Amino acid sequence: MGTKFIYDFEEGNQDMKELLGGKGANLAEMTSMGIPVPPGFTISTETCVSYLAACEYPKGLSEQIDEHLASLEKKMGKDLGDPEDPLLVSVRSGARASMPGMMDTILNLGLNDRSVEGIAAKTGNARFAYDSYRRFIAMYGDVVLGMKPQSKEERDPFDVILDEKKKAAGVKQDNELSSDDLKDIVAAFKAEIKKRKGVDFPQDPQEQLRGAIVAVFDSWNNDRANAYRKKYDIPAEWGTAVNVQAMVFGNTGEKSGTGVGFTRNPATGENEVYGEFLINAQGEDVVAGIRTPEKLGELDKYLPQAYCELLKIRDVLDSHYRDMQDFEFTIQDDKLWMLQTRSGKRTGFAAVRIACDLVDEGIITPDEAILRVEPEGLNDLLRPIFDNEAKEQAKRDGRMVATGTKAGPGAATGKVVLFAQDAHEIKAQDPDARLLLVRHETSPEDIKGMDAAEGFITQFGGATSHAALVARQMGKVCIVGCAALDIDYDKKKVTIVTGDGTPVVFNEGDWMSIDGTAGEVYQGMIETMPSEVEQVLITKTLDADKSLVYQQFAKLLEWADERRRLGIRTNADTPGQSEQAVAFGAEGIGLCRTEHMFFGGDRILAVRQMILSDSVEGRKEALAKIFPMQKADFEGIFRVMAGRPVTIRLLDPPLHEFLPHEADDIADVARELGVSVEEVEERNRRLKEANPMLGHRGCRLGMTYPEIYEMQVQAVIRAACEVAREGVDVKPEIMIPLVGSSREMQVMRELAVKAADEVICAEKSEVKYMVGTMIELPRACVVADGIAQNAEFFSFGTNDLTQTTFGISRDDVKGFLPTYIARDIYAVDPFQRLDQEGVGDLMKLAIERGRATRPEIKLGICGEHGGEPTSVKFCHKIGLNYVSCSPFRVPIARLAAAQAAVEDKA
Ligand code: ADP
Ligand code: MG
Ligand code: MG
């Protein structure tokens, strides 16, 4: 026997998704469970793959279709194409992973000019017969003959005709059309096909069937499906299955209907009846918004018997699949038929609630619960939220004025401010001020103002821009790349030209609201509140026992912590951030950047003084002013992190980042420092670099200005000694950035150890510290054995390691990255998801060589990838000790690490 291309629903089961697609496998599963499913068969995904490769039916397929069709005809007691009482079928696509609405389905296949009359006569319901026929012709025209609109502007030609007819007949809804109206529509549809395509609508059911099967195969490669696959990482090689299924009819009259539902609420996770239906309707009418559907609970009033049966099936499906199901059903003359089930898509809230409830109900284990929740989904539970009713009202009032790229989820409302400095000052005066920073883009010197704002929105920049990065670290709401913004810094106003062309002007101080989860910008104020999790953990304004959301979040993460082997640290620069991160479960700091501390109030002046002085003495004098402030920063962090390790990176960015560049600022600095404007400008010129990312930065600064690093090490260790004296356990880890040679590491280690030991000795302290390095250059990975001689830990700085490995500056990817992704040159943005093949391999090399020298070397990652679930799993796999990520991503990393551990067991 040759290849088996086709499986009857009786032959398959839910585990055969690869071969039968999700829809086919679950139709088979429901069939074997005894749930009423119209009979049919599935043409396998492999068949589709063969067809697409050869552009013709594989040998033997036609024969197998004939056989299975014959057996379906026998089961139904009707024949395809019988003019008196024809069998009608649907031809439905269905890939391995669900791709809702992406591919094509054709209903009522088998109808033609003769059999439509046959059905009308047999059922005595001409309206139903012609309603089915007009639907079939339209779907066939769209899907098989390619008449579907190709752009947003175009309208479906069949919809146009239908609308005209409705208008002429003076009715609003399509179910109000008479059978004569529907007959006219059928004629008009056929004429439209003839006009546009020059062919007659095929009357031969065999030809219809073949056309439909081929069209479903081909739909695997349509643009919509391609775009969807890209977005959700579905391989192009899978292909789609084709289900051929006997039709049942929801459009025979008032005792019939069709609907969709979920076994639990997919927004909240609550275990309740959820869904919608329409009486006297077919197929996707409910989803397509043709008429306004009713809530599923109301079905009881119309068709109580079918409703009662549906409730039973809802329970059966939920417990059989041990997960929330998304189902589709049709009722024909009060008899219920199930047409689809699959695990439903859900919000983060629902995912957590359902997973925890299912464990409570004894249906799944905590291991399974951990695997059920997408780590990213936890974001939903952490963000401030708009009062939903208030937001919907704003939409209705036409206050949604623009959209942009979502960069920091959550909701924020505040007064528009255009300058970070102003935001900082306003907030200093009035701690209750709520501000939204609106800018072309942001830069490191905006940090304070960004912290003062509820959220920020930029005109330029993408999901990895400075604003987006800071938003993730600070947990701020953020929209970037909002092209509609027109910012006039001089007149201090922002103009947004809305979709319909009306300009909306925001003067500084006007209220604006942004929904970073949806990427939407609103005019005016919309009330927000912190997430319940934050209210319990951070603001402490809500009791844990009053918040189910919090309790289940905590429960899930407790299970996660019991299972994961990766440590989770945080990237935090201030005591406040550290405290947040600890509340979210961080076990240490993996990256404390010292440069942000340089920007504060009077410090920046001392920093500038240091940079501008030409002598070591001058620099030391300025550094002496910075020292107590740095020390105080570290003390705060050590106290908060009590007992947990704190990795502090010595100064990393090039010095010119700290100098003023605007004429006004330069004049100010010159005056404050008592030097001439020319001197400041000259210094700026000398420090200017063609390519700062690869310039005079990282430990190259420590090499040329050792006094800077000495001061920093002394500040760290003095702070450690003083806090230790308070009885707090301190674990400082000094991290040298941008090391690329063994000798570099050796010199830096000597410098650090000398500075540290002097302090420890003078303080007569017992404080212990470590010295290690950030691994962020390919060369460092290669010579890791040498570097490890002087490094007690490696922390992979994968932001820069990615830049230097790819030879791409992250700030300059905009021009080509979209093309690279679209053309599949890169599968994903390597700055968002760790490139395991390239960068990951370098990491493995560094680990292997580092461990060869120092088997107990501590290994971590502090690039942004440390909070991205697939990258976290990779870090688990290659044996890192910990990942470090921004405070708000700590829960996500905890869950991802637990998933990696659970997946290991399987
Ligand atoms: P999608 O994958 O886009 O959801 P489906 O194949 O599920 O497409 O078909 C869409 C809708 O068509 C179904 O929800 C169902 O209402 C209707 N449908 C499909 N097959 C049949 C059938 N055999 N009998 C009645 N309705 C059907
Ligand atoms: Mg659909
Ligand atoms: Mg469906």
Structure description:
The protein is α/β, with parallel strands linked by helices and 906 residues long. The protein has 36 helices and 33 strands. It has an eight-stranded mixed sheet with strand order 14-24-23-16-17-18-19-15. The protein has an eight-stranded parallel barrel with strand order 26-27-28-29-30-31-32-33, surrounded by six helices. A hairpin with a 5-residue loop joins strand 21 (493-497) and strand 22. It is elongated and about 105 Å long. The mean pLDDT is 93. The structure holds adenosine-5'-diphosphate (ADP) and magnesium ion (MG) (2 copies).
Short summary:
Helices cover 45% and strands 17% of the residues. By secondary structure, it is an alpha/beta fold.
Strand order of the largest sheet: 14-24-23-16-17-18-19-15
Provide the list of bound ligands, each named once: adenosine-5'-diphosphate, magnesium ion
* Mean pLDDT over the full residue set: 93
**Rg calc:** 32 Å
Helix proportion of residues, in percent? 40-55%
What attributes does this structure have?
906 residues, 45% helix, single chain, binds adenosine-5'-diphosphate, 33 strands, binds magnesium ion, eight-stranded mixed sheet, eight-stranded parallel beta barrel, alpha/beta
